[in-house]
UniProtKB/TrEMBL annotation:
Belongs to the inorganic phosphate transporter (PiT) (TC 2.A.20) family. This is Phosphate transporter. InterPro entries: Phos_transporter (IPR001204). It comes from the Bacteria. Pfam families: PHO4. Keywords: Membrane, Phosphate transport, Transmembrane, Transmembrane helix, Transport. It comes from Devosia albogilva. It is a multi-pass membrane protein. It is found in: Membrane. The keyword Transport applies. The chain crosses the membrane at residues 27-49, 55-76, 88-109, 129-150, 162-182, 188-210, 222-244, 256-274, 295-313, 342-361, 381-398, 404-421, 469-494. The keyword Transmembrane applies.
Length: 499
């Protein structure tokens, strides 16, 4: 039976409506982002007094807002990806929690790292005010463009490294290679290896401890009642020290003895509070790994929220640090970096931009970190979150530069590779009889077809997607040099366009 002309017309209209709706959804996020950038420009123009160079502040405010959106879209995935991938949080819940805690961290404890960047990376002759403004503007725009491209490609990268590359590239364009402190660049390059390796090792060790003490036991519930409070207490103390040294560094900087005391006090409090809660929650659980893993759900959500607060406090300066340098330079008329501060209205642009970028463009990278590298549950995601805090604390104590992005992704790889190793080992132990495990393999009565089948089974047990390892590692390696080249080109272009 053929369709009537009316049915065909209705089908066309329905298809047109669906296409229009899809287009509207795709354009909604860029449209909202554009409205925010215009609002940032208006806000900056109403805040800065009229005078020479005030229009540069407005332009820089738009670039800083653009960078903040990209920080939220890319960097925040490292904190929320494991929680979403393990199903401890829905995507909507993760976006809400991350947006609130990122903005709170940026506004309440936003750090000022632009002085460190300017002093430690560019050590040559001091530039005049116009050169310094152009360098910072080019660095900010170059890093924003690269992070935007990385987000589009689905690669989590370090926004700190992008800003470093931008400052170095623009600085070379302005003053030559002698202006750069190359030993510092070498130290930063070393963090490409240090950060993911430390994150992966700590996460794998924590997962191995949980496997040995809880999930491999016959009576998992009884083991969980003993060890989960201990693990949560350790997490509480570590995060208390993490927040004291990193998340609240702008408000309060305690010394080592006070930091250790804070850790001990919160460890004891965490154990006292968690003991009765775990016992109550475990009363109705089945003696299975899947059910025991739910005991880690609430600690994981708390850890993700605290990581977001600390990230907002520290990394908001990646978005607005160079912008604050531009504002201070224009208002003072010279490029002295020692007196650069982050005014509240500048922090607000960064805080709102990060939260907005997370809400509009963050889900893609959250899924990449949480779902597409390896399969996560609450226990593995907990190991990733705890590893991130431990690695940052250990690196800070040793004076090693590390990237929170590299740490988190390295931790995901670490738990994935450990599970893969354990899975392949268990498969070999099951496949080979006990009495034959110490016999020469050539003596085993195995046909070529059986050997090939065994190899195929082992290949299918690869629990980490190799293509993501290569693509993410490549994005990490090119971040600094690519941002540097792009910033150098933008410096030359801005030098022609700006008086």
């Amino acid at each position: 039976m053929t369709k009537s002309a009316l049915d065909k017309d209705l089908q066309r209209v329905s298809g047109l409506e669906n296409a229009t709706s899809d287009l509207a959804r795709r354009l909604a996020a860029p449209g909202i982002a554009l409205v925010f950038l215009l609002a940032a420009a208006v806000w900056a123009s109403s805040t800065v007094l009229d005078g020479p160079g005030s229009y540069l502040v407005v332009i820089a405010a738009v670039i800083a807002g653009y960078m903040a959106i990209n920080v939220g879209a890319n960097d925040v995935a490292n904190n929320m990806g494991p929680a979403v991938g393990s199903r401890a949080l829905t995507m909507t819940g993760a976006l809400i929690i991350a947006a609130i805690f990122e903005a709170a961290g940026a506004l309440l404890a936003g750090g000022d790292v632009v002085n460190t960047v300017a002093r430690d990376l560019l050590t040559g002759p001091q530039m005049d005010a116009s050169q310094f403004v152009t360098v910072m503007m080019a660095a900010l725009l170059a890093s924003a463009l690269w992070v935007n491209l990385a987000t589009y490609l689905g690669a989590p990268v370090s926004t700190t490294h992008a800003v470093v590359g931008g400052v170095v590239g623009a600085g070379i364009a302005a003053g030559g290679f002698g202006i750069v402190a190359w030993p510092m660049i070498g130290t930063i390059a070393a963090s490409w290896v240090i950060s993911p390796v430390l994150g992966g090792v700590f996460a794998a060790v924590i997962l191995a401890v949980i496997h040995r003490t809880i999930t491999s036991r016959i009576d998992k519930i009884s083991a969980a009642r003993v060890w989960v409070p201990i693990l949560v207490a350790a997490m509480t103390g570590i995060f208390a020290m993490y927040m004291a040294t990193k998340g609240l560094s702008r408000i309060w900087k305690p010394g080592l003895p006070m930091t250790l005391l804070i850790g001990l006090v919160f460890t004891a409090l965490g154990w006292i509070v968690t003991m009765p809660l775990v016992r109550q929650q475990s009363m109705y659980l089945e003696n299975r790994k899947k059910h025991v893993a739910t005991l880690f759900r609430f600690p994981l959500v708390v850890a993700a929220a605290l990581l977001s607060f600390a990230h907002g406090a520290n990394d908001v300066a990646n978005a607005v640090g160079p912008f604050a340098a531009i504002v201070t330079t224009i208002q003072s008329g010279h490029s002295e970096t020692a007196g650069i501060t982050l005014p509240l209205w500048v922090l607000a642009i960064g805080a709102v931009g990060i939260a907005l970028g997370l809400a509009l463009f963050g889900p893609r990278l959250i899924r990449t970190v949480g779902e597409q590298i390896t399969k996560l549950n609450e226990i593995r995601a907990y190991c990733v979150a705890l590893s991130a805090a431990i690695t940052v604390l250990a690196a800070s104590a040793l004076g090693l530069p590390v990237s929170s992005t590299h740490i988190a992704v390295g931790a995901v790889f670490g738990v994935g590779f450990l599970r893969e190793f354990q899975s392949q080992r268990d498969m070999i132990n099951v496949a080979v009889p006990v009495h034959a495990r110490f016999v020469d393999p050539e003596m085993l009565n195995t046909t070529p077809e059986e050997a090939l089948s065994s190899e195929r089974k082992l290949a299918r047990r690869r629990l980490v997607r190799r293509q993501h390892v290569l693509s993410i590692a490549a994005a990490w390696v090119v971040t600094v040099p690519l941002s540097a080249v792009l910033a150098a080109l933008l410096y030359l272009v801005l030098g022609l366009l700006l008086p």
